[in-house]
Amino acid sequence: MNISNKTHPYVIVDVFAETPLRGNPLAVVPDADRLDVQTMRAIAAEFNLSETSFVLTSAMAGGDFRLRSFTPTGDEVFGAGHNALGVWWWLADTGRLGDGSSFVQQLGEELLPVAIERKNGRAFVALSQGAPRHIGDVDDLEPLGTALGLDKNEPASVPMNAAVVSTGAAHMLVELASSDAVDRAEPNAAALLPLLKRAGAQGCYIYATNRDRPGEAYARFFNPTVGIREDPATGSAAGPLGWLLAKRGIAAWGETFTVLQGVRMGRESRVQVVARAESVELIGAAVISATGQLSL
Q1: Is the CB of residue 239 less than 8 Å from the CB of residue 171?
Q2: pTM for the complete prediction?
Q3: 3-class DSSP state for residue 176?
Q4: Catalytic: which of 51, 175, 268, 281?
Q5: Local structure of 224: helix, strand or coil
Q6: CA 82, CA 283: separation in Å to the nearest integer?
């Protein structure tokens, strides 16, 4: 038996959570410059989490670190969500950032600002996402409702509207009448996939707002385009949602908006967003849930 004696550290952090085993688990692989893309994809498949992020030296002038994130199917993703926030929280929590508060991350071919704030000994991360773009609206809602497993004979379950918005990753944002309707969704990946591709969207973020809680939305996320059945916290979709709701006058520009996600999965997550007309900021923290060594 030939067993490799090469090891590489990793850590799993639960992002948008205050205690372990909540939020969205992310595998972080630091010092990854020596790993080739094939190995990164194999590691992501091994962890089988929604995303695994690798920390590398920035290939662009002005960048402090380069992040590469892969899904279990080997797809590389470029949106600034839990995949990036979890990395920066870990870097701050382990002292790798020193006392600094302002940094720049390379995601794909973009350089995006990162801010670190420390409160009562705990690090909080604010990520600037890419420029918000309203790509388009979805007019034919009936097949979308069917693909989401919603009963068209129940008016309260039928999608009210749908739009595709990007702050680095384009997602379809589908409004339902209530959090109960959001929880009733049972998406059919095979039926949802062509609708997403036709709209130019990666994933589907279904959500509901509540007049009694104007600063909050309730959401679930499905992304069959990269093999994610359901994600417990999706910063790359929460950012576009906060921006869209502010544009519609439902949320307030420049104020913190919270998306509650992952409840139905037993991994409650609270994703905070500050939306402005030309920019979106994602805010949150994480906790370490596991550390270990990869044998490569």
Answers
A1: no
A2: 0.91
A3: coil
A4: 51
A5: helix
A6: 10
pLDDT score of 2: 46
User: Which tokens is 279 given?
Assistant: 């920019």
Annotated active-site residue 51? The verdict is yes
- The answer to whether 73 touches 83, Cβ cutoff 8 Å, is no
* Residue 164, number of CB atoms within 10 A of its CB: 22
- Measured at the CA of 231, the angle between CA 141 and CA 23, to 5 degrees, comes to 135
- Mean predicted confidence (pLDDT) in 112-139: 95
How much is the average pLDDT of 30-43? Answer: 97
Q: CA 15, CA 283: separation in Å to the nearest integer?
A: 11
Angle 291-295-296 from CA coordinates, rounded to 5°:
130
Tell me the domains of the chain and their CATH numbers. 7-130+284-295 (3.10.310.10), 133-277 (3.10.310.10)
Q: What does the alpha-carbon distance between residue 197 and residue 3 come to, in Å, rounded to a whole number? A: 43
Do the strands 133-137 and 161-166 form a parallel or antiparallel pair, or are they unpaired?
antiparallel
